[in-house]
Amino acid sequence: MVQNGADGRVCATASRESRTLGRRGVCPKSALRDTARALSQENVELIRAAMATYNAGDFDAHLALYAPDAEWVPDVSTFPEAAPPQGRDEIKRFIEGTGEGFMNLRYELNEVFAVGADRVLARGEWGGQGAASGMETYSSLTTVWTIRHGKISRTEFFFDHDEALEAVGLE
């Protein structure tokens, strides 16, 4: 938060304290780093919350964490015919469609970390118990989430972890 008055301008820090802006009217670099770190951690927690609602089968609560114009980008190696679902309604239909062959479809996260100020990379095991066979089956899945104004705006899916790392500039 930046306020004028002074001149009394302040900048927010991760600890929710305020610091007076420097002589040049900018936040000290340490305050900006603290704020970016706090936002990154909030984004990680948003993705953990999204996975908790998904794993609970509460898709309405899950989709409430998304921006209205959110986009999913499926891995074309697994879903070659799938056009990217756009908006909460299309994403919900996609979730329901992929879940038809499973009971208790889940995405169990093994690692989650921020990539910059607005993206989160999550790696885990996606799958569940087959509806017809009753067999448990899971695939390694990495997702890249983009966060805008505290909501998920884009989710990219990768069944190849190295491709996900490359997509975020880490490989």
Envelope shape? globular
Instruction: Please mark out the parts with pLDDT under 50 across 5 or more consecutive residues, or reply none.
Output: 1-24, 29-36
Query: What's the helical proportion of residues?
Result: 25-40%
Major β-sheet profile: 5 strands, mixed
> What's the number of extended β-strand segments?
8
Mean pLDDT: 81
Q: How would you sum up this structure in a few lines?
A:
By secondary structure, the chain is α+β, with helices and mostly antiparallel strands.
Structural summary, described in words:
This protein has 171 residues and is of the alpha+beta class. The protein is 30% helix and 37% strand. The strands form two sheets. The chain has a five-stranded mixed sheet with strand order 4-8-7-6-5, sandwiched between helices. The longest helix has 27 residues. It is globular, with a radius of gyration of 19 Å.
Secondary structure elements and pairings:
Layout: E1 2-3, E2 10-12, E3 18-20, H1 29-55, H2 59-63, E4 66-73, H3 87-99, E5 102-115, E6 119-130, E7 136-148, E8 151-158, H4 161-167
Parallel strand pairs: 4-8
Antiparallel strand pairs: 1-2, 2-3, 5-6, 6-7, 7-8
